Amino acid sequence: MLQAFLEYRMQHCYRETNRVADLLANLGRCQDESFVSYANPPFVVMEALNYDSNVVTRSIRASVAFD
Predict the structure, then answer these.
(1) What integer best gives the mean pLDDT of the chain?
(2) 59 in a domain, yes or no?
(3) 47 vs 1, 25, 30, 36, 44, CA distance in Å?
(4) Among 4, 16, 17, 54, which one has the highest count of C-beta atoms within 10 angstroms of its own C-beta?
(5) Is residue 57 within 8 Å of 9, Cβ to Cβ?
């Protein structure tokens, strides 16, 4: 997908600094349904979002090779 763009920048976030994404990925991995939509975010997601908004993310540089 990235090859379609002329310029792009990738930034890595450790799962400890993006708990919302990590939490949602783990919830999705364990669910039986193929798609779930929430009218309101689960409470645990709101706690993780609060944590994420107060943590400084770390940037690393990495090269990406496409075959």
Answers:
(1) 77
(2) no
(3) 32, 16, 20, 20, 5
(4) 17
(5) no
d(CA 23, CA 12): 17
- 61 in any annotated domain: no
pLDDT, mean of residues 5-18: 78
Three-state secondary-structure class, residue 27 = helix
Q: How many domains does the chain have?
A: 1
Residue with tokens 């600094």: 17
For the beta carbon of residue 16, count every other beta carbon within 10 angstroms: 12
Q: Could you tell me the pTM of the whole model?
A: 0.49
Q: Looking at 12-21, 28-37, 41-50, 52-61, which range is the least confident one?
A: 52-61
